[in-house]
Fold each of these.
Amino acid sequence: MQKIVPANIRDIQDGPRKSISRPPTFIEKHCNSVFGWATYFFAWLTVLLVLYIVCIIAIQAAPAIRDYGLGFITGTTWDANTHQYGVLPEIWGTMYSSLLALVIGSLFGVAVAVFLSEHFLSSFVFSIEKLFGVQFHSFWGKLPDKFEQILKNLIELLAAIPSVVYGLWGIFFVIPLIRPVCDWLNTNLGWIPIFNTTLSGPGMLPASIVLAIMILPTVSAISLNALLAVPPKLREASYGLGATRWETILAILIPTASKGIFGSIILAFGRALGETMALAMLVGNANVISWSLFSPANTLAALLANNFPEAGPKEVGVLMFAALILLAITLFVNMIGAFILQKASTPNEGAR
Amino acid sequence: MTDIVTSVPVPSNKIDSDIVIDSGELEKSLRRPRTAFNYIMSSLTTLVTIIALIPLFSVVLMLVVRGGQRLSLGLFTQLPPAAFEHGGGFGNAIVGTLVMVGVAALISVPFGILSATYLAEVAPYSRLSNVVRMCGKILTGFPSILAGVFAYGSVVLVTGGFSAIAGGIALSILMLPTVILTAEEAIHMVPAKIREAALGMGATQMQTVWMVLLPTAFPGILTGVMLAVARAAGETAPLLFTALFSNYWLISGGRLDLMQPTSSLAVLIYNFSAMPFQNQIELAWAAALILVLVVLTVNLIGQSLSRK
Amino acid sequence: MVQNAQNLSSAPNPANGNGKSVVIDCNITELYYGKFKAVRDTRIPIERNRITAFIGPSGCGKSTVLRCLNRMNDLVRGFRFEGHVHFQGADIYHPSIDPVAVRRYIGMVFQQPNPFAMSIYRNVAFGLKLNGYKGDREERVKRALCAAALWDEVKDKLHTSALSLSGGQQQRLCIARAIATEPEVLLMDEPCSALDPIATRRIEELMLELKESYTIAIVTHNLQQAQRVADKTGFLYVDTTQGGRTGYLVEFGLTKQLFEDPKEKHTQDYIHGRFS
């Protein structure tokens, strides 16, 4: 065997070998156990924090719960002067606006997810490049994938814009934009309950539209993951039987990914229920229960945002009660969403 | 061609088979309902995707047009104007946002990283870890206004007044889950062989985490922190009744006072957007432009870090 | 606890002296991962300044046995062990022994090159830092890199990332990192399996050089490699008769004798490639 080891290694090795190994010092050992305990402590602290949050809100709400009880949920007036409090209009407004936003947002979100998962954009760019014969060019050839990545990032950016900015945009862009349409609908189709009031500025519809935009990225991101997780062999099987692209999408892809898509919609619902700013700025803050899309309304989160800063001691308790109701609703919805998503990520029949 | 065909005794469409396919059936045609449906659905999806992007471009356009016209250096140095005043700026709101996000990061980053270390390294499979992960998920979906309610109940009512500290604590609750979950993911992504190498050298668990795992996972953790900071900077709801608002500088008499009401960009936008004065509304747009620029920049930096 | 750990280092340590003395006496009666019995009845003495090789078919538990020697198996959930491992006379599985301390005296080189994502210099100096070495660190790093036959290749780029090196260089860097603190024993877990033949030959050369100053135990699935480098060889085989796949030691002896005149039938079959 030829010697490849350099010659100078001998000179160095000739010195007396002296191990510098030593056991971990007292300090090292104790730092280590302190560190271990610190991580343990902070892990517990995370759990305690969640419990503490619930406790703080529940304890402060306790007097109000005692005074108003279930009547608080069914009452429809909010008057600090007569100490009459009820949040039924707010619960109604929260649910109505969130469901409206959910219908719009999930329709758009799932469509965007399909658009991205089926590579519509990249194949479109590719076919255009094919016309010019540059589809395999070193620069142009990369464009289809790049475009798609950019589109994905743009959708994600929708989620990054602060909600207060959406609120501002809603006041000065959405409301003026939809007002003529709403007025027309009201004058011509006013006999339908959802159109039976005029849009006087803020109202349910503009709030829901903005809310829909805010939950769209949630729906599309999680649905996209679910669609991409569909095994390619299922898609191939469908194409192989002569199905068209959309027959494949509607009959195979969406049903297979349905759990993930459903989970994303539930999570988006949770987000819509708790969203505050866009609603506080756009929904009109009126204690009204109405089917009309154009009527002003109020939501639990907006109620808290508007009344907390100037609340007296008595009102704080009542507001804490409202916060507790909001907490219970969102917690419930989020748990269901997380549960569905967890079920969806475990392999199902189609994936096997 | 035709000569050859006629010379063949058997007609070409009668080859040993009973099934006769009219070649016209293989042609593409929009008159066939299946194909038409396919075409319409593709167009619809494309249209919907384009519509979904309109808000983004519209928001950006309006910010640039309406916010851009008021952009000047004075915005950063002056205080908000009173009702009928002209001019003015929101220097104090920028400082307030920075201070409160800073307080929130100081609380949530060490907290989150230590917790994440427990989840990813110390006891990944313990029951406590599963509970902590669930709590992280709960906090992720936690309405931001409730973080404000919590800080109001636990800080404002206890200390007896609105303050930057209360605002920072409210924001830290919103940052915490992002930091925990991304840091756990980042530490978990460090290859097992690297971890083994350190432990095999006789490093204690703390030395392994501190000298090897955290430095290796650093870009991922930083991404999480950046995303959390970007979110916190844009949050309004938790600040409305914890930090409230103020028309004055946070620094008074040469020292930083964190126990007084504090203004922030987000709350300024909210308050000014509802005012009937043109000057204030213009300022709100300018503040929104700056806020979005900051949030998007931090976001993009964070995302680009994780892609490397 | 501290006293025990000191026993590890203060045991007689003649630099290049009596080659016959047993440094690690490994006697595994039974070893479990959870309910799975991985190894049984394996007794291997590892002698000073010798290379001891473990060979055997895959899944026979040779890596498991090696990882017992510096308590790396403690990191595996559900690991349970019966028997004893004596390092210079001290039972390293005694409750008073700190596994972290054991690993500082018994270094390890892994199957996959696993340099840290930091500079070459800091990789080698990692062990020095761990052991709180106060002396001339650069000198130590240089010595370790020379001993690992890597110095000439990296002396101009000590502060570039270790990940920029080739696979063979990375593995030699890992060896340098392990020997920078000059541990008593070097455990090598298939150190060449991820490398090409040229890099493999360099590592083998290196092992023969290092033998002069270190005690080495190596796991290999390459019979030629065992023949080329090892003084003593242990052959492990899988026992499937009791339902599971339990590894056990079939034969242990001088390499020459084990390969030329194996006593056991299983050994004969294995080294002549007569396994189905």
Amino acid sequence: MTETKNGGGFTGDPAAALSVAGTGGCCGNPPQANLSLPEPDGAATTCCGTAAEAKAESSCCGTAAKADAVASGSGCCG
Amino acid sequence: MTTGSEPAALDRLLAEVSGERMVATVATLAGDPFEGRRVGTPGGAAARAWLARQLEGIGATVTTETFPVRAVPDVYAAPIAEWNDGDIAHRLTFGRDFSVHLASVDAGDQPKRGPLGLAGADDPTGRWLLVPAAMALADAYEHAAGALGLLVGRAVDGDGWHFTMLAGPNPGRLPVLSVATELHERLVAAVGGGAASWSASSPIRRVDVTGANVHGRLRTATPRGVDLLLTAHYDGVGHHPGLRQPAAADNGSGVAVVCEAARILAAGLPSDVGLSVAFVDGEETGALGSAHHAGQLRATDDQPLVINVDGAGCLHEAAAVEAGGPAHGLLAVLDRAARHTGLPLTAGPVASDNRRYAAVGLATVGIGAGMAGYHSPADTADRVEPETMVAICRLVVATGWLAASDATKLSSLIGDRR
């Protein structure tokens, strides 16, 4: 089919969505009011770690990342 | 396979997407009767009943599945706090100046008053202790024997609210309050004067409740046909006493998108394609509803393609996509759909129910397009952008239609099973 030339779609490899970096939120989607294109950097933030960690732990949050966030009292896990 | 007539058919479906209908859905879900839709509450049950009726209205066979949810935090009375600098009492506002930390013990709704001190520096006995910014809460307990409670600095959001979380640490042995960072700094400075005091209540309990997912089956796939599952969580963090948290963007907007996309796809897909909807509960308590549902799918060896929407309220430059499971083929279709509808996508975290479905091996994409007022009173219906919901709904409709129309593209050479 003819695709429209309108800037839609992934700017890079769609498969990058299979290995996204961590998140600023915990057990919920983080606020993304200013999500910008595109900057997957492979690094986990304080909470909740990476998707791979979460998957490995059968949880939406990696335990280590969550423990760090809880211990720091810095917010996203309480 | 795609034919020359199919783009026009797809565009006809896309033209049916109604922003007005989604706005109305969000307004209803964010309304007072649903009380912010926390799992296990009457408001959550009312939202569930309403959603079931919406699904039945578009021809779905609706079922409900329950699951236990333990120790849900519940602030059962409006917390009170004030501090005195030695001369003047300053009454504080719950939700803005302070909130109840998830690690807090339930100390009731009557305020306890005592002098302010600094954890690690002052005698804790009978004091409210400010936890220094450099000290972890877990370490603060080491310095808190006999203390009235702990005060932890915490940044507020851009609207000045403490956002509410339901998933987090278990209660400790003391009352713990989160205090806005700026106020916390003022209190630390006031401790040096020696006359500052704090008075506060911390009415928070843990309740065991029952969560419930709402499932709607709109079409049944033929044995080799594509089966699509559209999901969104309908629960929110719930109102606090005296503080509405309507959960419009998170995730009334996602629910509205799924409702609208399901309505359109139900009538527009080929006859061999399956379509179901899951409005899952308990996301805010750790994605428990989707975990329950994913377990059911694994047990029955159902393998739908999963599209999860978490937040369609505030699109900036692109929608975030996080994929899991054998989703290369689904991602290719999503990309194609986004190119057709003109929506930029970027690989980004969508830490939601999509991870539960991916964890059981289902090809899954999670889509997030922003939220204003995350988990706060500012998550109101008027801040959900209709054009964002339209853009995400068009993406979902196009993805579903393309997946159904060209199922061979859903397999890849790198291990996808479909």
